[in-house]
Amino acid sequence: MKHQKPPAAESTQVRLARRTPTYWRVTFDHPPLNILGSEAIVQMSEIITALEADERVKVVVFDSAVEGFFLNHSDFLARLEDVTSLPPGPTGLQAWPDILVRLTRAPVVSITLIRGRATGNGSEIALASDMCFASREKAILSQWEVGVGLVPGGGPMARLPRLIGRGRALEVLLGADDIRGDLAELYGYVNRSLPDADLDGFVDALATRIASFDKRAIIDIKRLVDAANLPHDVEIGAGWDAFLASIVRPAAQERIKTFIQRGFHKPGDVENRLGHYLGQLGR
Amino acid sequence: MKHQKPPAAESTQVRLARRTPTYWRVTFDHPPLNILGSEAIVQMSEIITALEADERVKVVVFDSAVEGFFLNHSDFLARLEDVTSLPPGPTGLQAWPDILVRLTRAPVVSITLIRGRATGNGSEIALASDMCFASREKAILSQWEVGVGLVPGGGPMARLPRLIGRGRALEVLLGADDIRGDLAELYGYVNRSLPDADLDGFVDALATRIASFDKRAIIDIKRLVDAANLPHDVEIGAGWDAFLASIVRPAAQERIKTFIQRGFHKPGDVENRLGHYLGQLGR
Amino acid sequence: MKHQKPPAAESTQVRLARRTPTYWRVTFDHPPLNILGSEAIVQMSEIITALEADERVKVVVFDSAVEGFFLNHSDFLARLEDVTSLPPGPTGLQAWPDILVRLTRAPVVSITLIRGRATGNGSEIALASDMCFASREKAILSQWEVGVGLVPGGGPMARLPRLIGRGRALEVLLGADDIRGDLAELYGYVNRSLPDADLDGFVDALATRIASFDKRAIIDIKRLVDAANLPHDVEIGAGWDAFLASIVRPAAQERIKTFIQRGFHKPGDVENRLGHYLGQLGR
After folding, report:
1. Which of residues 15-74 of A touch C (CB under 8 A)?
2. Contact by Cβ (8 Å): B129, B103
3. Distance (Å, rounded) from C-alpha B24 to C-alpha B141?
């Protein structure tokens, strides 16, 4: 967050398409790296509000239009204030965790389709959505934050242990390495990994199927599942606070600065093999 | 529940066999489809009471005598009142959820052996029992209810997310598709899937093994495991209430009626490939 | 606990090596069977205290120097009082459960490397540590206790259902059988099983990697993960109390005595194929 750049012209980085009144698609489209900045957060927030308000939509699929990147880490060339100065959402949480907990509780079924890197925010969207299917060959999930001295802010400490167990959650969060499709499936980090050629057809068929069911029954089932083991917002908020505390520490600032000097935040090998380069950073 | 049929003569649809004083078998035997009606519920309730009261029994195995069907959905040709007018059980819950929560807490180890379809009630018995082993080739698990606009009533919204994680639980419950042995094992929906030829021998050896252990130690271990993450009865009751609310809604009544017209509730392709036909119903 | 032997000369059964100031190794080295007695408990307690107090250590790996045995069951030739008379630890729990809950909460990442048998205490250390990697060919995990009429004392009833789900936890705890690497991985009992030739390199690389990260971020992430689903100490204490109640019952004393007569507690086939012989004991 030490570097600055001029504010970008407003652009649509998160595109919403209503395939049918009951089946929507949300596409992350911010080339070349699908980095998540404050503009995309504002756009996501508006989409969540639309999903909450619409009486007909039953299914939303999240995917990416950017080759190699489903959804990436935050924008470290922008000012931290660009994100923290956004107004808190209806849950009282700051914008990004607010979006994630509202997505989880929204009266609509959310399915994440992961092709390319789901790093940081990308993994957090997958964990906050209702189901997640990954490309066996092309998906990479990663909670990379500890590698630069950060604590992840979008809820993975709360969600991962409930989803995949404490031991594997700690490996994902403290190893900070790239998790490919096969391992993500074995761990239950995603519902399933499918051959890349089958992935789009599978997700589209499932979304179309669910969109043909009765919305009231869908909502009641989801609500009762969430009674079983959803983390409380306070737990998500504690994770976000730990992220904010971590990002201003010199240990993190120095690692981020060094990492940017090595190629982080630019198209190339560091972004493509993030896990490998994180392992070199602190030696 | 719009259709009626004359009350059947009393028959034994759920057979209890005491292989030894410590090892019992319970066999669902209501051909041709192993549909669960009020008679079977009464018989199951009596068996649970016997399991609770017997001081020697340590293990009970649930299996089926009906080719292709472990235990199927409820009887939609009977009157709903046949089930809802049964007296509530000792837990205060209505008969079917009462049976399931008592099975889970019974001072005996329950093992479900799934060959053929475990649809609705069949899946709910598997989830309420202590362990479940499935035929790799012949087991099909299914929480099919949302496909006809129903909410499942026997606890899967409470049990599945604790067992297999939120994402896979929502896929099972909202996809309403047929889950075969391999996928059920990958998801942890069952303990393991075994080659069909090995299944009976495996389960019998495990049941015999456990029956050779000390009952007091068995009970204490089970009781302490259940301290960790058993859903409260209130949560199971909320699921049952949501089921009762869903079944009287026109959306469900119309889908059930149409589905019966297409072959549901009769031996044939709709019952055999239920997941496929559910996907056609709402289009 | 009926048999006695003279107190052994003090020996180092649990060796601590500081590979670097940030990366420590703890090696169980009590040949021929790596049985855990009161001396090893005292040594483990001192190591946990050192891990808690050291400001630099970030990672600790637990492994074994004994061929065929990672860490084994308790010493049944010693007096029970040797263990129960140890002073309770800072948590208020008796020494062994105190060690385990302190390990889980310690401000350091613990990784268990399992080669050979992890029986009883060995499995409990694996479950209490933060991550666990096993030899595909040579690891055997086992909660064997019910086979001799005991309830396990070191927390597996609390930890296993949260880690691998209720059904698989009950199978492990009530089947009391040997669980090999492949099945342990499928069940999520361990993070992963690796080919034996790759295991040491994999664990060393992961430990070195984590040791290169920022300690404060590591601790905050672990603390937040533990907010999600760590069992309360009271639950661990209840398991220990159930163990103490079980070991004085005649049913357990007789089985243990018979088992010792058959070769338990001596190098040989009973110790090597413990699961098999437990299945013969009560017939």
Report:
1. none
2. yes
3. 24
